[in-house]
Each structure stands twice: as C-alpha cells, then as structure tokens.
Amino acid sequence: MRVMIVDDAAFMRMMIRRHLEEAGHEIVAEGCEYHSAMDGFKKLLDAGTPPDAITMDITLPGRRSGIDITRDIHALAPDVRIVMTSAMGTQHMVIDAMKAGACDFVVKPFKPEQLVAAIEGRVKE
Questions:
Q1: Three-state secondary structure along the chain?
Q2: Which class in CATH covers the domain with range 2-46+55-120?
C-alpha cells in the first residue's frame, strides 16, 4: 500500500515510516504542516499516483489542523483512506475527524500493529 505521513514531529514521522515499511508498505510522501501536506498530496494526485492511505496528525503548527487537511484531501480524493493520529483522543476530536472524512483514529502512543491495522482497514489488535 502507498502511504503518506503527516505529522509535525520528525521523530514521529520516522517511527511511523519504520512501522509501515516493516509491514511492507511504501511511504510516498511526508508533510509536517498544512502546506507541505497539501503540496505533497497534490503532486501525487496530479501525477496520477495518489496514496492509498494517509496517517494524519490532528495537531499541526499554524492555523490549519489535520482535520482541515483531511477535509480538503477528502474533497479532492474521497477514496483515500485517512487515519487520524493524536495524543488527545477526545470523543469530540474523533467525531470531528470522522465528519471530515477520516476512516479511523489511533491514539498516541500506539502499538505498531494498531497503526498497521488501521492503515490496512483491519480490526485493531
């Protein structure tokens, strides 16, 4: 599966990359805030090679959140699987993420198998 990672923490992007690559997935782009994420996604979309899935941190620097990016990506490519990640998994945040187009929500810190299951659309272990 082709996956894009969006998280403002370089360490978290590196950890997610490692877990997903070990599970056989290909990381095709990364972003650390709204503009880098949207630019990377649009380049892949314009090339006809959008990611199959995206891990999306809710809390990002700047005025636009991961929920904003999810909403904008979902408007361009509704079939892309978006999995929200956050250390703050409040019910309100989960509901907002799902309304924006996310299909799953993984609370940090997570087990690698939880992230992989969410990306692959399997029941979390």
A1: CEEEEECCCHHHHHHHHHHHHHCCCEEEEEECCHHHHHHHHHHHHHCCCCCCEEEEECCCCCCCCHHHHHHHHHHHCCCCEEEEEECCCCHHHHHHHHHHCCCEEEECCCCHHHHHHHHHCCCCC
A2: alpha beta
pLDDT at position 89 is 67
Q: Which residues of the chain have pLDDT under 70?
A: 89, 123-125
Chain mean pLDDT for the chain: 94
- pTM for the model: 0.94
CB 99 within 8 A of CB 70: no
Give the residue extent of every domain in the chain.
Answer: 2-46+55-120
